[in-house]
Amino acid sequence: MTDRINDLLTRIESFAPATAAQVEEFRIALLGKKGEIAALMDEFKGVAPELKRELGQKLNRLKSAAVSRIEELKSTVGAREDAGSARIDDMTRPGSDGHIGSRHPISLVKNRIVEIFSRLGYTVADGPEIEDDWHVFSALNFPPEHPARDMQDTFFIEKNPDVVLRTHTSSIQVRTMERQKPPIRVICPGRVFRNEAISYRAHCIFHQIEGLYIDRNVSFADMKQSILYFAKELFGEKTEIRMRPSYFPFTEPSAEVDVSCSICGGKGCGVCKGTGWLEIMGCGMVDPNVLEANGIDPNEYSGFAFGMGIERIAMLKYGVGDLRLYFENDVRFLNQFDSAL
Ligand code: PHE
C-alpha cells in the first residue's frame, strides 16, 4: 500500500496537462467517488491496527497533495487557455472602460448644496475640527451653564474644557466674522462631533453645512426666500417650505424649516410619518449679541444663519433608512450612487 501511495504522489507531481478538461479527468480519477484515493481509503479499513497510524498520515498527505495540485493546475491551465482564446480575438477592439469608482453620497449632496448656494453668491469657508470654547460656544451666545457644553454632548480633549471637537459648523461662522467685514455670504460644510450613542438615526460623527449672510438691511423675508429657492432646487420645483418657531442661542428669532415631503408630495406617507412635512434645517436672524461679540455693529448690520445635517438630507434624497451605512463604506452601498449628480 505504501508503494501505491508513493507511486500516486509521483504521478501527481509530474502530471502536466494541456487542457482544463484533462485536469478535470485527472481529478475524477484521483479524487472521484470511485477514484484511486477512495479505493485506498477503503483498503485502509482492513489494515492491521499497528500500521494504521503511519499509513493514515501518509494517506492524508496524499489526499491534500492531490487537492492542492489540482487547484493549482486549474488556475494555471485555465488562465493559459483564456489567454490563448484572447489571442485570436479582434485586436482592434477598444479596451473596456476602467472602473473609477463613485463619489460618496455625502460628498454628492454636499457638492450639490454648495453649488446651489454659490449661485446666490455664497463662497465656501472652512475651519478646524478641533476648536476652543470661544468659537464653538461663547462667541455664539451660549450661556456658561448651557447643556450643550455638558460632557454628555461634547467631546473635550485631554480633560481641558477649553479644547473641544466642534459640535456644529457654526464655529466656522465665528472664524469668518473675525477675518472678514460685512458683507459676508459664506457656506460652511464640515464634519462635527457629538457624544451620542450610535444608532440608525444618530452617530457621534456627522456632517453639517451652515450658511451665514450679513449685510445692511438683511431681513427675515430674505432668509425665507433664500431657503425656499434652495429647497426647490434640491427637492424639486413643487417643493414648499414652512417655518416653525424654535430656539437657538445664536439666532433670534429662530425657526425650524420643514419641506413638503418629496416622497408623497405632501399627502402623508411612512417617511414623513403621515404629516406631509420633513424637517431639514434650523435657521434664524443672527442674535445682536453674536454680532457684537464678533466686532460687528448690530445697529448697522443684520444677518441670518441656517444649518442642516448632510446625512439627513442625503437620507431623504436617496431614501436611505440607516445612517450607519454612510460610515461603513461598504462598496455594495457606495456603488449605487451616480457620481454625475
Ligand atoms: N448650529 C445649529 C445646530 O447645530 C444649526 C443652526 C445653524 C441653527 C444656524 C440656526 C442657525 O443645530
Provide structural commentary:
There is one protein chain. This protein has 341 residues and is α+β, with helices and mostly antiparallel strands. It has 2 domains: 2-82; 105-337, BirA Bifunctional Protein, domain 2, CATH 3.30.930. 41% of the residues lie in helices and 21% in strands. The chain has 12 helices and 10 strands. It is elongated, with a radius of gyration of 34 Å. It binds phenylalanine.
- State the shape: elongated
Top-tier CATH class of the largest domain: Alpha Beta
Strand content: 15-25%
Tell how many strands the DSSP assignment holds: 10
Strand order of the largest sheet: 1-5-6-10-9-8-7
CATH homologous superfamily identity of the largest domain: Bira Bifunctional Protein, Domain 2
Number of helices: 12
Span from first to last CA?
70 Å
Radius of gyration from CA coordinates: 34 Å
Draw up the topology in text.
Layout (H helix, E strand, L loop, with lengths): L1 H13 L5 H12 L4 H9 L4 H39 L17 H14 L4 E2 L5 E3 H4 L19 E2 L2 E6 L4 H10 L4 E10 L11 E11 L4 H16 L5 E8 L2 E10 L16 E10 L1 H6 L8 E8 H9 L6 H4 L2 H4 L7
Parallel strand pairs: 1-5
Antiparallel strand pairs: 2-4, 3-4, 5-6, 6-10, 7-8, 8-9, 9-10
Helix pairs in contact: 1-4, 2-4, 3-4, 5-10
Bound molecules: phenylalanine.
